[in-house]
Inverse folding.
């Protein structure tokens, strides 16, 4: 993924894993079972109504965290230890929280400046509906490899592709699945990605050996994904050319559409490629878009507020909605601003509190250690690693911990089995990096939902690359395909 640049690689490698000999497996699982039970009850038995209001998921996470505190106290863990680990977790998400706020501001200013409408306009002219889904994957792959960031990819071209898909009448979950699949493929294979650098550092191999070895499982997975989306695309029933032409006309009635509007997104992507910090790149994107709105879209701003400057300010901080007689465009021409990101930010904070306490009481180490003991064969070792990564994405709600903790716990086991470290680094990425976007309360899942406006439940089945990657790595392990042995000196 990722854009959490306040954590250096050294800090991540040196992160402590707390061991609590007083805690047994059943006690470690109590908060997890409570969390999953409450979430499942809310999903399956409350009949579409939120059990505890709009912030049900946040409250459930905090209740589960409270249960973890009780388990910790009963097992002689001090409040200070739990607080310290929670504080460390909170520090890790400060930059992602600021990025989320800037993405909200970006969506607002890119709407009122005409950037997103222009992307939709030209996209409708260029992208044939039958190839739209696989083309979306390829576009996101290119941007993500260039930037090393799935977050930047979905916050720029991802938003535009969702808009184009809506205009064509394609299910937004399907489009989001294509966007996320392409974005995470590029993220995994880009040497600019911090998780791609982190995984080999944890396993004890070098970056380019890791990327080459990862391609054995990653390329077949993305190939299957492209084939699946190509088949889906051929069977889609979308709006005809007449409807698309009508949309183009309606967009032109509202916005001044010009290729000059693409200067802003091109510059933002360019800044990320040259390793400008995401906070700086996105801030520049917001400010430039605000200027473009004042210059290119004065009539749009007048329709929102008598003061153009006030209209731009509202677009940054508060929800903006541009009226249109066309129902499709009326839904499309709405942006959340920073305020619209608060639900997601509170979800991330709640998840970090739960994950921090679980780590503080030693529950994460106990669960991972038990999985390691079950690994009697090579396939068992790979399976334990995969389930540890996925489990930590669920429990710790953090992609970094899903790479760091299994990396530390399994490095020795892989070495003792005579397996080269790139086996471990590949497995960490195949199961830790990509599945983070499939967990609603994980920082990545929450971010993608907030950015694309599509829930994890809506895009889960279509994020084929993400859920197929851990399966592919287990298939390779089960049939002993490209499982490299250590070279004995």
């Amino acid at each position: 993924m990722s854009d959490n640049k306040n954590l250096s690689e050294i800090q991540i490698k040196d992160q402590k894993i707390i061991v609590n000999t007083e805690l047994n497996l059943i006690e470690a699982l109590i908060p997890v079972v409570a969390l999953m039970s409450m979430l499942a009850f809310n999903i399956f038995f409350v009949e579409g109504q939120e059990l505890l209001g709009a912030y049900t998921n946040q409250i459930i996470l905090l209740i589960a965290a409270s249960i973890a505190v009780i388990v910790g106290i009963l097992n002689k863990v001090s409040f200070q230890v739990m607080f310290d680990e929670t504080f460390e977790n909170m520090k890790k998400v400060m930059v992602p929280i600021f990025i989320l706020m800037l993405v909200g501001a970006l969506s607002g200013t890119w709407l009122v400046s005409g950037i997103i409408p222009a992307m939709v306009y030209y996209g409708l002219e260029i992208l044939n509906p039958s190839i739209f889904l696989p083309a979306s994957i390829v576009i996101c792959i290119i941007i993500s490899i260039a930037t090393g960031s799935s977050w930047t990819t979905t916050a720029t071209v991802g938003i535009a592709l969702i808009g184009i898909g809506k205009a064509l009448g394609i299910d937004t979950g399907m489009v989001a699945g294509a966007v996320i699949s392409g974005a995470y493929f590029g993220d995994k294979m880009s040497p600019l990605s911090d998780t791609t650098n982190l995984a080999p550092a944890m396993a004890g191999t070098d970056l380019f050996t890791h990327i080459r070895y990862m391609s054995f499982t990653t390329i077949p997975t993305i190939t299957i994904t492209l084939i699946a989306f190509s088949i889906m695309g051929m069977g889609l029933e979308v709006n005809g050319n007449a409807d698309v032409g009508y949309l183009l006309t309606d967009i032109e009635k509202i916005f001044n559409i010009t290729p000059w509007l693409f200067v802003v997104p091109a510059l933002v992507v360019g800044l990320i490629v040259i390793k400008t910090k995401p906070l700086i790149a996105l801030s520049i994107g917001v400010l430039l878009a605000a200027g473009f709105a004042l210059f290119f879209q004065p009539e749009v701003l007048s329709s929102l507020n008598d003061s153009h400057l006030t209209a731009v300010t509202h677009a940054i901080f508060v929800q903006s909605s541009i009226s249109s007689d066309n129902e499709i465009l009326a839904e499309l021409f709405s942006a959340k601003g920073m305020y619209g990101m608060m639900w997601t930010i509170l979800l991330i904070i709640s998840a970090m509190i739960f994950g921090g306490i679980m780590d503080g009481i030693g529950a994460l180490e106990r669960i991972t250690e038990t999985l390691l003991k079950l690994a009697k064969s090579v396939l068992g070792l790979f399976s334990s690693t995969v389930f540890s990564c996925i489990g930590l994405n669920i429990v710790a709600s953090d992609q970094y911990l899903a790479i760091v903790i299994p990396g530390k716990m399994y490095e020795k086991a892989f070495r003792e089995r005579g397996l080269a470290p790139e086996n471990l680094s590949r497995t960490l990425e195949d199961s830790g990096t990509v599945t983070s976007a499939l967990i609603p309360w994980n920082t990545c899942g929450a971010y993608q939902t907030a950015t694309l406006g599509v829930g994890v439940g809506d895009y889960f089945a279509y994020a084929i690359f993400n859920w197929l990657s851990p399966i592919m790595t287990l298939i390779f392990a089960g049939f002993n395909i490209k499982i490299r042995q250590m070279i004995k000196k």
User: Anything to note?
Assistant: Residues 1-14 have pLDDT under 50 and may be disordered. The beta strands are 320-321, 334-335. The chain has 25 helices and two strands. The longest strand covers residues 320-321.
